[in-house]
Amino acid sequence: MLNATYDFNASSTPSCTPIPQPALISGISDAVLATVLPTVVYIVACGFFYWLDRQQLFTQYRIHPTEEDLKRNHVSRLECFQGVARYHLMQISIGLLLSYGAGPEMVANKSCDVHRWAGRVRHARTLVPWILASVGIDAKGLAFATSSKSATLAQFLAGGPASFAGLNSSQPLGFTSAELFVANLVETFLVPAVQFFIALAVVDTWIYFTHRLCHVNKTLYRIVHAQHHRLYVPYAYGAVYAHWLESLFLDILSFMMGNALAGFSVRQSMIFGSLATIKTISDHCGYVFPWDPFRSLNANGAKFHDLHHQSWGFK
Fold first, then answer.
1. Which end of the chain, C or N, has fewer beta carbons within 10 A?
2. Given this model, what pLDDT does residue 192 score?
3. DSSP-assigned letters across all residues of the chain
């Protein structure tokens, strides 16, 4: 992370030439890792819930008794496992096909991106005198009056160091530590947060409306979506048990669009895909824990989804 007290001027602008990003795991490209990681997460998370079930742990948090899935579900656990395996084979095959022949991701030095944002922060600061003038305040006069007490405040009021240089020629014109600090915050936290929000909005919107269409259109429901609802008592590793058309057009396609429209890097897609996998498993796990972090963000959790899976539940 760039030091917030570091100042540099135009002569020390960092190189913005993209370079290959080293792989997170030696011998495995990031593209391959991003493709298989959601499946690894799925296996680990589902294995955990399967172990809880077999050990009869936390039974007070189960929605249904363990034996109920054997009586009410219209698909055996073996058939469900085969359907889930097919889903992950599809997902991995498509991911490997799309990344075939691609070299390592090319990335620029982070300080280059921080430098660009510092320039945008500097440009935004030039609006301050105009805003103050619109309410009858002489910004540059106020900047001159405060310059002896606080150079930082004077620069802010004047619209940045370049404007303040007219008042004090000894003031350096390089980016200030405050501009670099704000730029670093934007690049490190704000930009990724916006990207994740865009990806989440795209995926959630696509899944909601295609899922709704599968319930509204009786033909689609009977041919495609009814397979997923053969699980009246959902359990963790049955989370992605579905018809192959639903797996492709509802799940896999939604994440491809989300990644593309959000402009994710390969490593961001690893995080997003892994979190989405855990959320899907959490919705189908059959447990309602009081400490579920996903439920604090979204009420659509295991209990809500279990009701949806019942023959009498809302669709």
1. N
2. 95
3. ---TT--B-GGGPPP---EEPPPSBTTB-HHHHHHHHHHHHHHHHHHHHHHHHHHT-SGGGBSS-TTHHHHH-SS-HHHHHHHHHHHHHHHHHHHHHHHTT--SPEE--HHHHHHHHHHHHHHHHTHHHHHHHHTT--HHHHHHHHTTT-HHHHHHHHTSHHHHTTT-TTS--SBPHHHHHHHHHIIIIIHHHHHHHHHHHHHHHHHHHHHHHHHHSHHHHHHTGGGGGG-SS--GGGTT---HHHIIIIIIHHHHHHHHHHT--HHHHHHHHHHHHHHHHHHHSSB--TT-HHHHH-S-SHHHHHHHHSTTS--
